[in-house]
């Protein structure tokens, strides 16, 4: 069922605005907590690994359920699932804001992840369905990606301001009125839509996927403290390997797998997933390491530490619509090259800054990372959508968004692990491996852009 052909231009762009506002909440909650982590740690007496789970409990569940949420929306209606997600997300945010302990906070963050999983791919599916013209769709995806990138980059800035002024609980309260307003607008503006045939769910594959992501992140978070060769971590390696083998075996035998291996035969789709993973690993390493370092090692306030991320937010916002325009006119390769160069240059500047980086170098590096995020998101999202038929938009958006959130989870896990066991005086030197990873992520984007026909067609001809 589709009403795209009967929608006026004003209605189509209003639908984009509503979906983008919901996506702003999803991206915001991925990073707004980062700058509040030291205050949460003091308020709830949490260790570094416990604080990592405050972030990753959200992103892991978000990543694990995204694909099934996209299929669920394609089967039962995108608007319906979107509303359920917004409601769950808003109520869970209230729970986070009043959480009395670290365990309860992590539990409500899990529930937030459940709600968020019903927003990302569903929002993209709604937008794609409302924009049948390829050029218009490419511009819409550019705006959609810019809002998501802006939300991720704005998180530390807004979180720092709120934490300084009102305490860490305010970073969760701020979500509630926006979620309520989005629910009202969805009821008013967004029509129901679904493809002609929905996809069946895959409970065994879904359970195995979440277990695999959780196991991998657990190993990365706990290994620096327990020891990479300790018995619990060695057991973790074995469990992750068994889960991976089991997941591959189950999915190859399912008629409707949660991740269809055949999708990755499309070179553009496979490249989009790898690119999304690389971008969000790099982004979250930078955001976590810099904001945590400035507060713990330099004794900066949350507001001041968050403000250092402002160039990242501005550059991501400015570059994303431009990337959408470039994708529509000349294809995905040029913006990917620009993103690659920006990530690599940002990582090199951070490496050159040494163990006591000057504020100007941090600002410059953040600006370059923002440029990279801005130019990368639109071609990656557009590639995923245009590699598959329009009726698979929910699944395409789910897999790509899942790759982003897995990247966010891995980035936080790696960044937190770099700081484990270090004193405030040694945190600066501990960050250097993180900057090497940022450079490598830039090179991954370069390889994707340089590959033969990484995205088979331009948006204008899809």
UniProtKB/TrEMBL annotation:
TM stretches of this protein: 12-37, 57-74, 81-100, 106-128, 140-159, 171-191, 203-221, 227-248, 269-294, 306-328, 335-354, 360-385, 406-422, 434-451
PROSITE patterns attached to this UniProt entry: MFS, SUGAR_TRANSPORT_1
Domain Major facilitator superfamily (MFS) profile: 15-459
One Pfam family from the record: MFS_1
Localization in the cell: Cell membrane
InterPro entries with a match to the protein in the record: EmrB-like, MFS, MFS_dom, MFS_trans_sf, Sugar_transporter_CS
Keyword rRNA-binding: no
Membrane topology of the entry: Multi-pass membrane protein
Keywords recorded for this protein, A-Z: Cell membrane, Membrane, Transmembrane, Transmembrane helix, Transport
Keyword Transmembrane helix: yes
Gene Ontology molecular function: transmembrane transporter activity
PANTHER family linked to this entry: MAJOR FACILITATOR SUPERFAMILY MULTIDRUG TRANSPORTER MFSC
Family from the record: Belongs to the major facilitator superfamily. EmrB family.
Name listed for the protein in its UniProt record: DHA2 family efflux MFS transporter permease subunit
